[in-house]
Amino acid sequence: MRRIILSALFPAILILSCACACAESTAEFEASGEGIYNYCPAAFEEDGVRHIYYCTNTKAREIVDSIGFRTAVSVDGKWVYSDETIVLERTKFWKGWDTNHACDPDVIKGSFMYKEEEYSYLMAYLGCTTTNNQNNEIGLAASKTPSGPFIKIDEINPIVPFERDKSTAERDAMFQWGVGQAALISIDKAGQVLLLYTSGRIEGTYLFCERWDFSDLEHPRHLGDDWRNRVTIAGLMGRDMGYASLNNADAVYDAESGHIYLAADGWPCYIEGVDEPGEPTFINSTVRVLRYTPAIEPDELRDLTFSAGAWEQVALITSADSGFPRNHNPGLVHDPYGWALSSDALDVLYSVSEVKQPSNSLWTYRIHRLTVDLNVTGEKQAY
Prior knowledge:
This protein is mainly β. It has helices at residues 169-172, 319-322; strands spanning 16-18, 26-27, 38-46, 49-56, 66-75, 78-81, 85-88, 101-114, 117-128, 137-143, 151-152, 178-186, 192-201, 204-213, 221-222, 228-230, 250-254, 259-265, 287-293, 310-317, 326-334, 345-353, 366-373, 380-382. The strands form 5 sheets. Strands 2, 3, 4, 5, 6, 7, 21, 22 and 23 form a 9-stranded mixed β-sheet that branches. The protein starts with 15 loop residues before the first strand and ends with a strand.
């Protein structure tokens, strides 16, 4: 599952936020039944139809992740959703790398050949064989339609593997999350792709970007010698005015302004005396919307390293916006290629949850939506 557990010590501090020029947050749809969770959304809009993918379980109160799918159309200004279908599940035999969970999807459009057939939609997703949120890896699946069926590319999966640090017995016993939470942006609206993901290792949790050519899924190619880069955290500050981790991120590219936008979990996840108490404290209370500068021309995406620029926070989504104490695991609605639908506003999909003690809050995870006005960033303020 997508649960990153980070630890640190924080002083009693001034907390910073950005005023959020946003419409009222609303739940997108109800879960398919009692004891069902919905979170980690990803969505694109094509020909007036929104396609949303998300993490869910299929049996009440059984924690086994699958990828749910719905479509939505706008009726009188409101998005009306279809019933749920499951478009990807874990591999149900012992040799699979994703035998316990298949979750945290992102999907873009392009042209991807596999076994002499062309597929138009590429999904990146998280898989693992553990039940304790460790050793996650990233794989690919392809489909000819947004609704599937999605075919796993077994010859190359996991495309981003994780090698557990077993150098000493002590290190092997430490929590090692792995890699996951992929975000895709098409470089050329064909087969070249930016693949962003979170890497959680003993030494820290970071965001990485890899550049790939997936035109031939049986023989994928790296783009350039420096095809993998750690994404800078320049310009970022934690809610405690300290270190800012960058993880749980979704990304879109706005060709008009040249900016890349991220929606990412805020950091620290939980601050005693500021955030509402109760479990879970390892799930974030806030979601940040960030803008990367300098501007990037479309033909520069192929060489992007995320090393020379900096991030600016344009919005912070909190309990004041959602009405829920935990706000986490966001996604951005984009066009089929991972490019922005508008230079003026972004629809942010994000997960909310209640706090429950001692009950499990997982069953309260739902997906909300909030529109961020990109022309109004507001002033930083204490709260």
